[in-house]
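Inverse folding, one chain.
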């Protein structure tokens, strides 16, 4: 066992956790191949001239003690830092942050999750609230009989007016697919991903149903909850893990892309790697392969003739991609009553006349993400598809477009922009449409390959947060150590109903 070779694909949270677990629990010295030049995958932090960008805004929280203990090995919790004062400890800390995120819609702020109070009703307006109520009542008496699409699903549960107001456009913004092209079953299984709409719908629906269940007394704690956050962004955590992996004898090769897999009937025998630095390709034999690369690419990498159906379904798997514009500003136009920076970590931009989906205020995640504390450091997030109009725009054009959108909704003045950068991240969201309905065919095929372990977010084509990605890695390593043949316990991670990323 101890002289076996383990190849790990990807240096994101899943791959790094797998490597660390192997190093701690066995004598195996794993090798990680990472196609990009960065550590941390989607959870990396990009340093732009001393200002740091967190792609997506990564809250560190988990229900799992294993995950919390893991994190605390690499960064010291702020509250436990006092008695360990060294320079290392001063920087390697997990801050404890208050969370506030709101919805910006109709040029107004709505609490998130929505609270059904006077301000919400006032923001929506009497006419809109009445229409929502009437259309909700209508659908209660005259529901769509056969629910085929996600649109039917929403309308049946919330009425057409509420669907039109909150669901239709935002779903399109996030996914790039209209609700009437998404299967209704997706709503039942995956509604938790559409959190803004869900929160608003929940609050408004409760006006019309007798058994109101809005726990007003809990609202404050829900709105302003706490989470952990590395002083210099999520990448700091994963850089520290990578450092330790190398220290313990593991190897991490950046700019090394896995492009091929050789398999016998039930095993991978070798992995083909492209060293992008030298533009060279080589094969490496492996006893075990742990993969966090996207399943679509993994299947394409198999060199043996594999089942055409598996290939076809994998080719049809879809993803949503992501672009962030980092904007450095002298000030925001929009301010608190006390003339201070608005307190949100991030804001959901539900406005229809702009394409921006979310706005991060990095100062409020960690002041240490911003080089000059007097400046404002924003992240404007766009959901898109690789190759579409947004993705293909020239960087400067895209920056101008993003600035004009923020000016339009009244957040900034153009003259206050000091600097800017564009970041493109492919495959940020594995989609639950395309050929996903037939995903089990791929899963069954891959599960039969005994020495292959799928972990992580795109590695399992699932909305895994960091903690889920880590737990799947821990489970995979446990299976390797204990010779457990089934992969069911890895697939069982993150099957609970609660979904954290958008809550
Ligand atoms: C907008 C957004 C917000 C999020 N917010 C949160 C949050 O608040 N809290 C939270 O816990 N999680 C959050 N997440 C989820 C978190 O980013 C992921 O769960 C986590 O990064 C997944 O880790 P991973 O290792 O599975 O995958 P990834 O981070 O995707 O890492 C996979 C790695 O594999 C590499 N790779 C791919 N193909 C190959 C190949 N062929 N060869 C070699 N290497 C390859 C990639 O370059 C990448 O580095 C968020 C995600 C997004 C998109």
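Residues assigned per position:
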């Amino acid at each position: 066992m101890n002289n076996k070779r383990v190849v790990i694909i990807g240096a994101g949270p899943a791959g790094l956790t797998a490597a660390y677990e192997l190093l701690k629990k066995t004598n195996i010295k794993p090798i990680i191949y990472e196609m990009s030049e960065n550590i941390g995958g989607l959870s990396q932090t990009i340093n732009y001239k001393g200002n740091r960008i967190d792609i997506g805004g990564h809250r560190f929280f988990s229900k799992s003690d294993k995950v919390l203990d893991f994190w605390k090995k690499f960064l010291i919790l702020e509250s436990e830092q006092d008695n360990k004062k060294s320079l290392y400890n001063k920087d390697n800390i997990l801050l404890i942050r208050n969370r506030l995120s709101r919805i910006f819609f109709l040029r107004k702020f709505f609490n998130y999750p929505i609270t059904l109070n006077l301000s919400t009703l006032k923001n929506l307006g009497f006419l809109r609230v009445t229409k929502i109520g009437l259309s909700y009542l209508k659908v209660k008496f005259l529901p769509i009989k056969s629910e085929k699409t996600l649109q039917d699903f929403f309308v049946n549960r919330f009425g057409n007016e509420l669907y039109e107001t909150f669901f239709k456009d935002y779903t399109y913004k996030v996914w790039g697919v209209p609700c009437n092209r998404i299967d209704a079953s997706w709503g039942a299984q995956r509604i938790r991903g559409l959190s803004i709409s869900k929160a608003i719908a929940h609050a408004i629906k409760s006006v019309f149903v007798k058994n109101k269940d809005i726990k007003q007394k809990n609202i404050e704690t829900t709105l302003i909850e706490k989470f952990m956050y590395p002083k210099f962004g999520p990448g700091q955590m994963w850089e520290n893990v990578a450092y330790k992996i190398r220290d313990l004898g593991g190897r991490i090769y950046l700019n090394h892309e896995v492009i091929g897999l050789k398999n016998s009937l039930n095993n991978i025998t070798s992995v083909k790697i492209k060293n992008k630095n030298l533009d060279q390709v080589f094969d490496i034999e492996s006893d075990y392969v742990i993969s966090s690369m996207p399943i679509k690419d993994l299947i394409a990498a198999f060199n043996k003739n594999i089942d055409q159906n598996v290939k076809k379904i994998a080719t049809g798997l879809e993803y949503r991609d992501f672009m962030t514009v980092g904007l450095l500003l002298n000030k925001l136009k929009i301010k608190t009553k006390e003339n201070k920076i608005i307190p949100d970590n991030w804001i959901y931009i539900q406005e229809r006349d702009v394409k921006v989906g979310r706005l991060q205020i990095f100062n409020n995640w960690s002041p240490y993400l911003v080089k000059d504390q007097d400046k404002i450091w924003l992240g404007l997030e766009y959901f898109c598809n690789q190759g579409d109009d947004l993705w293909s725009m020239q960087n400067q054009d895209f920056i101008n477009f993003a600035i004009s959108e923020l000016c339009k909704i009244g957040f900034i003045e153009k003259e206050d922009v000091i600097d800017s950068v564009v970041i493109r991240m492919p495959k940020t969201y594995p989609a639950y449409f395309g050929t996903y309905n037939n995903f089990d065919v791929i899963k069954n095929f891959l599960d039969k390959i005994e020495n292959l372990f799928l972990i992580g977010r795109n590695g399992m084509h699932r909305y895994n947060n960091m903690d889920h990605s880590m737990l799947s890695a821990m489970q995979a390593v446990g299976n390797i150590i204990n010779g457990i043949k089934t992969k069911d316990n890895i697939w069982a991670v993150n099957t609970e109903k609660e979904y954290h990323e958008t809550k």
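The longest helix spans residues 466-482. DSSP finds 19 helices and 20 strands in the chain.
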